[in-house]
Amino acid sequence: MWPFQWFLFVHVTTGAIGLVLFWIPVVGKKGGRNHTRFGSVYASLMLVTASMAIGMATNTILAPVATHPHLTDWPPTRVQGIFGWMMLYLAILTISLVWHGLVTVRNKKQHLENRRWPNVGLNLLVIAVALLCAYRGWLINEILMMGISVVGVASGLTNLWFIYTPTPSRMAYQLEHVKAIVGSGISVYTAFMAFGFVRLRPDHALNPKMWAIPLVVGLAIIIYQQMRIRLTQRRPARVSTQGV
Asked: Which of 44, 115, 150, 186 counts the highest number of beta carbons within 10 A?
């Protein structure tokens, strides 16, 4: 199982660094040099981390027992579902969110570039693997797999809605960027809480409370940052009105 171990090593290394760097552009000054530099490094690390997760998930689907021998109390179908199909879905979701966050900034002056097939196809793929995750969860009666698939469907549909909006405002690009990049952080932290924690406490790995922590924190960050963007955009209008 050396491919799985190699995927795991790279996945943990790049993921750990990325999870730390995630907070620099989130907390720091927006649009500054550090924001751009560390944001780019974070995005690159997450793309590598998620790609390694795809490799691990594929190995698990093919050989669930050999890749996870420590889960002696889990039936192979459950290992296959959680660490195979669900990890595959979360990895593709993470890639989609990171990519969407990057292109929304890159293409803010040429919106039609967002409609290229890699962007559209990636979002369609996310919806497809989310539905596959839900189906696989239904087969083994795993509510978590069915519930978390809703996030992927919502992400793919909202991204496509933005992509096919005729003329988004400048603020819309910023809002999409925040939603996507912070959303990728939620996805990775959620995976860490589930797939990483299982090695320490297998009995608590699928506890909904553990999964709720990254979601609640991430949503709070998205709401706060989007409110800040909206207030910043409105401020010049108020100043000019008062001047008149």
From this structure: 186
Closest CA to 185 of 54, 25, 58: 25
Burial environment of residue 33 by CB neighbours within 10 A (0 to 12, 13 to 18, 19 or more): exposed
Rounded Cα distance between 198 and 181, Å, is 26
Q: How many CA atoms lie within 13 A of 95 on its CB side?
A: 23
**8 Å CB contact between 176 and 157:** no
pLDDT in tens, 197-221: 656 665 666 666 777 778 788 888 8
Listing DSSP states for 61-110 in one string gives: HH-HHHH-TT-TTS-HHHHHIIIIIIHHHHHHHHHHHHHHHHHHHHTTT-
Place of tokens 């087969």: 139
| Predicted TM-score (pTM) of this structure | 0.87
